[in-house]
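Review form for a predicted model. The reviewer records the input and the model, then writes brief findings.
Reviewer: anonymous (R2)
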Amino acid sequence: MPDTPEPHVSVTLAEIARIAGVGRAAVSNWRRRHSSFPRPVGGTDTSPQFSLSQVEEWLRDQGKLGADEGGRERLWPRFEALGDRELMGLAIAAVGARAGRAEPAAGPSPRPTPEDAPGTPPAPSGSVRPPVDAELSEAQEQAVEQAVRVAGEDGLAETFGFLLGRWLGTHVRQITTTPEPLAALMTELAELVGGGPGSARADGGPWTVLDPACGVGGLLTAAVHRWGAHGELRLSGQDSDPVLVDLAAARLALTDPREPRAGRPGARRGRNRASAAPRPARTTDLRPADSLREDGPAFRGEADVVLCNPPFNERDWGHAELATDPRWVYGHPPRTEPELAWVQHALACLRPGGTAVLLLPPAVASRRAGRRIRAALLRAGALRAVIALPPGAAPPHGVALHLWVLRSPVSPAEAGSDLLFVDAAQSRPGRAAGAAPPAGPGADGTGTATAAGAAGKAALDWTVLRDTVLTAVRAHRAPDSDRGAAAGADAPPGTKAVPVIDLLDEQVDLTPARHVPVAAPVAGPGLGESWSDFGGLLDRLRATAAELSPLTLAPDAAEAPGSQGPTTVGELARAGALTIHTGQSPADGVVRDAASAAVDGSVPYLTVQHLLLGSAPNARVSHADAAKGRETGTLTVTEPDDVVVIGSSRVFDAWVDDGGPTVLGPQIHALRVDPSVLDPWFLAGCLRAPANARQAGTHASATSRIDVRRLQIPRLPLAEQRRYGEVFRRLASFDGLLREARALGTELTRTLSDGLAAGRLTAEDRGNEG
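Model under review:
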């Protein structure tokens, strides 16, 4: 449609920055310095919007936009301008479907027509079919055509993944997704409990994986990554939202089992895979339907694996109309127990010996209304494990969700004698062993902290969580000769196998925390080591205190030797004594989590969120991206002896980053000093004073920001600064030791309290009481 005028598309300053590959501060500078910069076409004074076409023209004229730069970033505003969630989703699905025509992948089944019965077998799979071509408006068509052109340069899966990721981020409160590491863990659990494609089926058919609430296909994508290269694979799925089904179909068609990150939202830029070897045989059957109400016999009793993250707490799930449904082998689910309907639906879809892994809210394990069904699942041996995940593993992030691992009984004789409970939250998967602690002034006086902050909450480490869960399940599945050690004192921390007979009480409460003993990481011999470490910290504290205690303070700053009154960071910057480098938001795909990136020597990415959680940065940037970002000005990367200043009043702090380099996020600043004029330790020590934060805060809201340019330091000669700097270094060491001692002391108190409450005081200790 070359003669059709392009619809108006507007962009914000942040989107302009992403298109140009620079920070938002650079765009603001362009706007101030260049009178030719496009005028706002909408928005507000604080959040103006600009015409995308005018911005692109201006960037080209100024030489700030190359022919290949920002292609995907320029796409998103065109899709966002469509406005409606469904219109945007259908257009993105069409991009994936059209791009996928070039690759021989199985595609979605046609949408069922009104005359089709719910159980009508799917049409034969073939090349990817654009499911929404006939429904596209002119605006959608233009956005799709441009996206397909960009996909020809940036890669098919990468372009679709970028658009899908942005769409999901825009509608994060309306659409629930399963995080990629959790989806991978669920596939591993299914294989560990029920075997994989290598375990031969009696009928020799394809390995079949079903997701009855597939959404945008995250769990089925994980299944492709896990089993797609190991023989014929059949993927089946349903969802009540047709748009999500279309997106899932396109996503799966572009997912290559040899490239686990392909098609992932936010994947790195790549080239087309036209020369790739043929994929292993794979068929995909996705249907827009409510799995509980419209389940057809095609899905019954034939799946090897069911993976599902069903909707939570739905009251209108069909309780009355499905009262006599044959799927309710373990009892008719009460109206308030829709999740138990999904559990029984999953079991009905499995072949004998098949495995299901479901992500469920924790209340399903204990609600009184579901106790009879839980008891029936236990008696039949259908429920094999209940795993409590730590909060933050999946939306809703404030809830510790559960994984239920089920296996369709082959015969009554196979009923399990016990149920495995795993309380993964006890493993404290906030930081892997040997991982860098959170940034900040540490116990050793350097720019690296050695203890968690006051928030006391760590970011989730998926590597630790995965190892904890899989180790527990492997130990439970060990041969009977090895099970004794696995179930006893040598069992992995936070796990317990409980006999089924002990669970069949009045409540049938299957909450792991009710049955798993609290892990004691410093119990036994380790308790003595912890007390020894605590004593060592106290000795170091006394030594540092002895160095600081002789210091005296003058009654007034004017009486201090060499004092010439205060100055500000802004004045020092204007005088050239230091430069201010403000943290930025990296472009999509640059920042990756430590578990999935696994890049040796990568650079940590520090954000205010990490500091609020008191956790180590769990995001990383490769050295290559950090070097490129430093060169182009799109990333703020610290250098040795930079002073890092946090611009949020909630976690205001300043320290010398001699443990860097570190990539800084928004609201974090790096002050790079001229060592012939300023001592960095003196500067950091003066800036982090609490009184400084109060006078430099904006106070526009309850959580004010710190104007770093208004922070004050006294004017002192360089020699005097160095004297002060040495004292500040010792004070930072003292502060770090205090925090480390507090953290270890708190852990010792909790461990002893738990042990005493469990009656674990030894006979020798009782003898010493008097």
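Findings: The chain has a mean pLDDT of 79.
Further findings: The radius of gyration is 30 Å.
Recommendation: see findings above.
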